[in-house]
Design a protein that fits this description.
Radius of gyration: 23 Å
Bound molecules: iron/sulfur cluster
Mean pLDDT: 90
Shape: globular
Strand content: 15-25%
Largest sheet: 6 strands, parallel
Length: 451
């Protein structure tokens, strides 16, 4: 195959993991579009399948290999013409191992090399062999990726920062995504403008450690996240801004103040604390204490009493005692979360905590069960408390059933109302009438909130 051949080609992308992978998958589709690749929903008959992987979950690599086995069958059934690429964090972490265990894979590409996909594909065709690129090059991939071409809808993700220098004991990100790097503010602002032109009204800024953002500003100075959010809020058409994922140690005074000053910034923050025990936070190399988290939450609630929080927790990290776990439960009860993600610690090869003596699985299971029961209770209580409230909703499109439209609350909860009018992109006031476990029902009020 000649890569300059304009013949249309079918591209299927399987995306695992976080929103940053969702964003990267869209960028890879943009990179490959000029080569004639158009995305399709299934791998059957595809000319190229990209498996964009995540290394966070337990046995991530095993799951990738079993999915690759199914793709090999499809590739063989189609005469071998299908190109298979593995990208994302498993590609970065496993590298050569993927080609040894799955020699039918054509490309293994780390997250820093997506802009080089066309040249890597050409190389694989030229050599009729497999190609691997998992370098952390000095150049930033952001500078080489094309502009976002496909509209993401009313809510658009925008990656502004990648990598992490924190080296938490349990996390593979510093090894798979490399050192912290921030995009220049001018390029973020330009991309946000294009997103708005394509229909976006809410922009979610993404980064592994997004509040460590320190991109070069158009004025030649380094901009922190608060300054960037201020500039983004000034773009006509931007109604809402969010950012994720944050680290408590990087919640600067300016960023905290922005929550009281920037009207586009939603009163909803994902701030992973991981544990309520200082002993465990030190063992996890988290660089903050439980009281630092409490202080940040308190200051934000002082500035915005309607502020709500989500978080991440790890239970059963090596060395965690009953007293440590009790401290986590105390912090959870005291804070009150709108939503939280909790995980049982599982060792990631190559990370420091993986080499330590591990807790009994039954102990971890029992603690996770107790934590999740409390978090579920808090989530239900948070959703139930919205019933009767009249609140702004950003509408994103049609609901699941005819005569329904769907949108998002200030807290990103899905909201469904009855309406025959297309409200896509509008912010309207809605009175919440019912709370389901994962969505809210409401009735539309007459008042329209001006753009
Ligand atoms: S701050 Fe987040 S991304 Fe960085 S090492 Fe810790 S858990 Fe991983």
């Amino acid at each position: 195959m000649n890569v300059s051949d304009p013949k249309p080609r079918r591209l299927h992308i399987v995306t695992h993991g976080c929103q940053m992978n969702v964003y990267d998958s869209a960028r890879m589709a943009d990179v490959l579009r000029p080569l004639g690749y158009a995305t399709v929903d299934t791998p059957e008959g595809a000319d190229m399948v990209i498996m964009n992987t995540c290394h966070i979950r337990e046995r991530a690599a095993d799951k990738v290999f079993s999915a690759l086995g199914r793709l090999r069958d499809l590739k063989e059934a189609g005469g071998g013409g299908m190109m298979i690429a593995v990208t994302g964090c498993v590609a970065q972490a496993e590298g050569e191992v993927i080609l040894k265990r799955a020699p039918y894979v054509d490309l293994v590409v780390g997250p820093q090399a997506y802009h080089r996909l066309p040249e890597l594909i050409a190389q694989a065709h030229r050599t009729r062999g497999s190609v691997i690129d998992t370098d952390f090059p000095a150049e930033q991939k952001f500078d080489f990726l094309p502009d976002a071409a496909a509209p993401q809808g009313v809510i658009a993700n925008l990656t502004i920062q990648e990598g992490c220098d924190k080296f938490c004991s349990f996390c593979v990100v510093p090894y798979t995504r490399g050192a912290e790097a921030s995009r220049p503010a001018g390029s973020v602002i330009a991309e946000a403008r294009r997103m708005v032109a394509l229909g976006a009204r809410e922009i979610v800024l993404l980064g592994q450690n997004v509040n460590a953002y320190h991109g070069e500003g158009p004025d030649g100075r380094h901009w922190g996240l608060a300054r960037l959010l201020e500039a983004l809020a000034e773009i006509p058409g931007v109604r809402r801004l969010r950012y994720t994922t944050s680290h408590p140690a990087d919640m600067s005074d300016e960023l905290i103040a922005a929550h009281g000053e920037n009207p586009a910034l939603m009163p909803f923050l994902h701030l992973p604390v991981q544990s309520g025990s200082d002993r465990m936070l030190a063992a996890m190399n988290r660089r903050h204490k439980a009281d630092d988290f409490r202080r940040i939450v308190g200051r934000l609630r002082d500035l915005r009493p309607d502020m709500a929080f989500t978080s991440d927790f790890i239970v059963g990290h090596p060395g965690e005692t009953e007293a440590d776990f009790a401290a986590t439960m105390a912090l959870v009860r005291e804070t009150g979360f709108a939503l939280a993600y909790s995980f049982k610690y599982s060792p990631r090869p190559g990370t420091p905590a993986a080499a330590l003596p591990q807790l009994d699985e039954a102990v971890k299971d029992a603690r996770l069960y107790e934590l999740q029961a409390e978090l579920r209770r808090q989530q239900d209580a948070f959703n139930a408390a919205t019933v009767g409230l009249t609140t702004p909703v950003l509408f994103t499109g049609a609901g699941r059933y005819p005569g329904q439209v769907a949108g998002r609350s200030l807290y990103a909860q899905p909201v469904v109302v009855e309406s025959d009018t297309d409200l896509t992109g509008e912010v309207r006031t809605v009175t919440i009438t019912h709370a389901n476990p994962n969505s809210l029902l409401g009735s539309l009020q007459k008042e329209k909130i001006a753009a």
